[in-house]
Specification:
- The structure is a single chain.
- The chain has a single domain, classed as Beta-galactosidase, Chain A, domain 5.
- The chain is globular.
- Strand 7 and strand 8 (about 90-95) form a beta hairpin.
- Strands 7-8-9-10-24-20-19-14-17 form a 9-stranded antiparallel beta sheet, with no helix packed on it. Strands 13-22-21-18-15-16 form a 6-stranded antiparallel beta sheet, with no helix packed on it.
- The protein has 1 helix and 24 strands.
- The chain is mainly β.
């Protein structure tokens, strides 16, 4: 079932499966969100929890027991419940249960809140530790945005403009998308500009750290653009399907990273994971501005 919130600036639609966004439209009918393509990538805006990207062999250990998780964790393929809604905000919730505990041995409440204010969408993740053990987890967003946003333009007309000059590092990945420890400086024109071209994704995702905490997807010619703010996130993934001419880009704020190549991670030992003591709450907001 689809749920929609709207004001005179934007309309936002989401579904219970994965609490995933389905549409983000402006008042002039511009669709900002990638609409999926079975030949390229069927996703639109998955929510990532409790793990980001891949685990070696799809496995990890916790207190000596092995568990399996799919790519990006449980959230993208699990039904949430709509728990509250009005004209300008809606909240989806996922509570641990006998099925989730088979794959992730923690009791939790994971809430995804979408709230619109004029031309702005706030995406807030709230995670409550309902169990007795400290939780170890990652959380992040994976929205795909149409590029171009205007039919008269092409993909190469667009660029990413970081809010302030920075000297990011690109996380080193193996060919099969695991960490290899080979992080390198990543060049931005004038310290803040990344020109878009399809071939920059030929080797899969670009994942950055030590970057500005805000970035804007802009065109050299068009009037529409998108600003994304992710103040709490340490990493930023940029992606579209490798070796394609797909007309979208995913701009993905992440709290943590995938596993190291060839290593089945011990959740208690993976250094970049978030930790949440029993009974406590973690909350973070990612803000999108649509123009």
């Amino acid at each position: 079932m689809e749920f929609t919130i709207a004001n005179k600036y934007i309309t936002v639609t989401a579904i219970e499966l994965g609490a995933e966004l389905r549409e983000i439209k402006s008042v002039d009918g511009t669709e900002f969100l990638w609409q999926g393509d079975q030949n390229i990538w069927m996703g639109r805006a998955p929510n990532l929890f409790p793990y980001i990207a891949r685990l070696t062999n799809g496995e990890y250990t916790f207190k000596g027991t092995r568990y399996r998780l799919p790519i990006h964790g449980l959230a993208p393929t699990t039904e949430f419940k709509m728990t509250s809604m009005n004209e300008e905000k809606m909240t989806f919730s996922l509570t641990s249960n006998s099925e989730t505990l088979k794959h992730y041995p923690f009791e939790f409440l994971f809430e995804v809140l979408y709230e619109i204010r004029k031309n702005t969408l706030d995406l807030t993740y709230t995670i409550k530790n309902l169990g007795e053990d400290t939780m170890y987890f990652g959380v992040g967003a994976h929205p795909g945005f149409n590029v171009p946003l205007d039919t008269s333009e092409c993909f190469e007309d667009y660029y990413l403009d970081f809010a302030e000059p920075c000297s990011p590092l690109r996380i080193g990945f193996s060919e099969d998308c695991f960490l290899n420890g080979n992080d390198k400086p990543f060049h931005l024109d004038e310290g803040h500009i990344l020109e878009l071209a399809h071939n920059i994704f030929d080797n899969d995702a670009i994942v950055l750290k030590e970057m500005s905490k805000s970035v804007t997807l802009k065109s050299k010619h068009g009037r529409h653009y998108i600003c994304i703010h992710y103040p709490d996130m340490k990493y930023l993934g940029l992606w579209h399907a490798p070796q394609t001419r797909a007309n979208y880009i995913c701009i993905e704020p992440w709290s943590s990273l995938p596993s190291r190549k060839g290593i089945v991670e011990d959740l208690e030992q993976q250094k970049d994971l978030l930790t949440l003591p029993a009974g406590e709450i973690y909350k973070t907001t990612i803000t999108f501005e649509f123009y």
